[in-house]
Amino acid sequence: MRLFKMPTEEKKDDKKEWKNSKGKELLLKGLRDGSIPLDGKDMPPKEVYTLRPEFADYGGYKNFPSRLRSARKTIIEKNDRASSDLAAFTHDRLLYPEAPHNYRGEPRWDGSDAERFLKQDIDDGKHDIMTPQELYNSRAVYHQNYPLYVFRGHIYQEVKRRKFLNQYGALKRKKNNA
Fold first, then answer.
1. For every one of its 178 residues, what pLDDT tens digit does the chain have, with 9 covering 90 and above?
2. Of 7, 15, 95, 134, which is least surrounded by CB within 10 A?
């Protein structure tokens, strides 16, 4: 004996269809890019519903107003969170600016000219034809701020990172094609 009514399979399928549907994707994209206003007063649900024929494929108009209201609420909340996160981060950076040197007293590598030039040299393949010592001596910016052992570590780190990203991309492509 059941004390509650089980949802029908049709309703489950309908929700599942909308959750991953092209119509929902188009609705969210329209809300993000501004073609569908976030304020319901500017464009009522009936007007939004008539914009795309894909909206009609997922339960008709009777479900659309609540779906639109929910999508608008989600986008507004995400926008609010992003702006509040940015404000908090900016506030924290004013109180605690990023240290110009690491714990060893060396200038930070991230965002430095040395990092930019090393990436360019690796793009050009110089790390394959030169030893780390020769590459280190090829530009003044390398040896002005960093000892050879640190620079050598950054060469290996960048090469390893590129190999990883290449392998990760290949795995992702393989997964998407399967």
1. 556 665 555 554 444 577 778 888 888 888 888 888 888 788 888 888 888 877 777 777 888 888 888 888 888 888 888 888 888 999 999 999 988 888 888 889 998 999 999 999 999 999 999 999 999 999 999 988 899 999 999 999 999 999 999 888 877 777 777 6
2. 95
**What's the token pair of residue 56?**
């009609």
- Tokens at residue 169, please? 């991309």
**Domain boundaries defined on the chain:** 10-95, 113-177
Q: C-alpha angle with apex 137: 135 to 140, nearest 5 degrees?
A: 115
Give CA–CA dist 154/148, Å, rounded: 10
Q: Has this prediction a pTM greater than 0.70?
A: no
